[in-house]
Amino acid sequence: MLNKERMPEHVAVIMDGNGRWAKEKGVPRLVGHNAGMQAMKKIVDHSDKLGIKHLTVYAFSTENWKRSMEEVSGIFKLLVKWVASDLKGLIDNNVRVKVLGDYTVLPEDAVKSLEKTLEATKDNTGLQFNIALNYGGRDEITRAVKSLAKKVKDGALEPEDITEDAIDAELFTGVYNADAPDPELIIRTSGELRLSNFLLWQSAYS
Ligand code: FPP
């Protein structure tokens, strides 16, 4: 029996291996991404039932833009499809969705779907589902450092005030943004053991 009292507070998943799965089956890569999305939906459902407070998935990295236009636009189409099919269920299950990364540069229909989801789930108090989109750990830290430098320049902060907590607060997971604790557990599907620029700061003790 699983003891709900001993569940990690935050589980993060690097969704990898969709392409290899598709290749093995002799189907297009996007079929692999679609299967990955179906697996993701099950994970959301189970995390919610297990009482996990935060689930984060690495859906699209800052490096993923290098893939073919067909693959990139196919992934965002999946995102739009997911919102159309699952938003009601997320609301019913009290799930709050947050995005890690600058999603405003995504295709317009994806941005609209995400904004609708963020707005419709913002007051929910159950599982927080963080979707990393156009996310990179180094990009996130660079943005945090820039924001702090600006505050120092504007006289709102002293250099001595740049503590670990101050940096943490500026991250996409920080208190000014998604407000998620560091993940205890990071799962990478496909069997690889690399972080690939995912939650670099937050994974110090994962
Ligand atoms: C990595 O596998 C997977 C991705 C780059 C895309 C994952 C995105 C989804 C499953 C859709 C997300 C949708 C929502 C709703 C958040 P890979 O292609 O790198 O696999 P490979 O290493 O075997 O080629």
Protein described:
- This protein has a 5-stranded parallel beta sheet with strand order 3-4-2-1-5, sandwiched between helices.
- It is built from 6 helices and 5 strands.
- By secondary structure, the protein is α/β, with parallel strands linked by helices.
- The protein is globular, with a radius of gyration of 18 Å.
- It binds farnesyl diphosphate.
- Residues 15-20, 33, 36-37, 40, 59, 64, 75, 78-79, 82, 131, 190 line the site of farnesyl diphosphate.
Enumerate the spans where pLDDT stays under 50 for 5 or more consecutive residues: none
Rg from alpha-carbon coordinates? 18 Å
Helix content: 40-55%
Main sheet summary: 5 strands, parallel
Shape category = globular
- Spatial order of the strands forming the largest sheet: 3-4-2-1-5
Treating each run of at least 4 consecutive H or I residues as one helix, how many helices?
6
Give the end-to-end Cα distance, rounded to a whole number of Å. 24 Å
Q: Which cofactor or ligand species appear?
A: farnesyl diphosphate
Counted beta strands: 5
Structural class: alpha/beta
Order of helices and strands: EHHEHEHEHHE
The average pLDDT is: 97
How much of the sequence lies in strands comes to: 5-15%
Quaternary arrangement of the chains shown? single chain
